[in-house]
Recover the amino acids of this structure.
């Protein structure tokens, strides 16, 4: 049975297909390298990248969202809709097609930023509607429905600064879902709240993604509350040189 399932899963085209992707970062004599020998993420999968601070979680997520360019790559393909052909992201990077990559991100990816990233001068409703208006999507009740599910409906007309940190994180999640993307990338979406609130927000997030068959990649320090939600954990190893001048993280999955 297991073999049948595995071969079926392999036959299914991947949303992300990465091979030998590398991202180098250096500052003040300290170098960091993220290496991804092989990574396949399938449609509807819920993936968790768990690791200590500085191991390269945001670095990987930023590449998956086409925000930062890999330093080197053998293959990087993206297939947001199963019925479409895979897009050769490596080729777009090579040809410096940043606008095309930006358009792909806007249309298919929702991003929950580590720092929240809400615009302080826009109301909660306007923050959540932004991605829809950028794509000229109709102003229907999507934002209200999401806000209700996330328990923030009564805050829709307030400014983010008048909300608690946990409420703001819910807004950030709602904003990433509002334009109905097929992929949501979430960088520590519950970093600044207590473990009880974090578990509640994370399970709400996964539940909403599950209902919409969204592919999810989430980075977090804490595996404990994510494990219970049935996410697939990406394997990674971090090696530091003795003098601390170089760090390399290898991610496979
Ligand atoms: N702008 C930058 N310039 C140079 N090096 C950077 C930069 N941002 C991060 N790095 C280096 O890359 C490494 C990985 O950083 P990254 O932000 O991906 O870690 P992380 O796992 O997301 O950490 P955290 O849990 O603290 O968010 C760090 O060790 C850091 O030294
Ligand atoms: Mg980070």
């Amino acid at each position: 049975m297991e073999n049948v399932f595995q071969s079926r899963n392999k036959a299914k085209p991947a949303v992300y297909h990465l091979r030998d992707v590398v991202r180098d970062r250096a500052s003040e004599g300290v170098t960091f390298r993220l290496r991804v020998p092989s990574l396949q993420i399938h449609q509807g999968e819920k993936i968790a990248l768990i690791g200590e601070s500085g191991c390269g979680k945001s670095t990987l997520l930023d590449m998956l969202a086409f925000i930062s360019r890999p330093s080197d790559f053998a293959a990087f393909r993206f297939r947001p809709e199963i019925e479409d052909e895979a897009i050769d992201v490596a080729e777009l990077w090579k040809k410096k097609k940043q606008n095309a990559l930006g358009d792909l991100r806007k249309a298919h990816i929702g991003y929950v930023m580590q720092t929240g990233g809400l615009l302080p001068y826009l109301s909660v409703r306007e923050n959540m509607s932004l991605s829809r208006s950028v794509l000229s999507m109709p102003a229907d009740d999507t934002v209200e429905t999401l806000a209700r599910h996330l328990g923030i409906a009564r805050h829709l007309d307030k400014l983010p600064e008048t909300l608690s940190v946990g409420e703001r994180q819910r807004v950030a999640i709602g904003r990433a879902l509002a334009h109905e993307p097929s992929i949501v990338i979430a960088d520590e979406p519950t970093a600044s709240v207590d473990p009880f609130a974090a578990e509640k927000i994370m399970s709400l997030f996964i539940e909403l993604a599950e209902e919409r068959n969204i592919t999810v990649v989430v980075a977090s320090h804490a595996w404990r509350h994510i494990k219970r939600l049935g996410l697939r954990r990406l394997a990674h190893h971090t090696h530091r040189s003795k003098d601390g001048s170089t760090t390399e993280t290898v991610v496979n999955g």
Summary: The pocket of magnesium ion (ligand 2) is lined by residues 57-58, 114, 187 (CB under 6 Å). Residues 4-8 have pLDDT under 50 and may be disordered. Residues 195-211 form the longest helix (17 residues). The two ends are 22 Å apart (CA to CA).
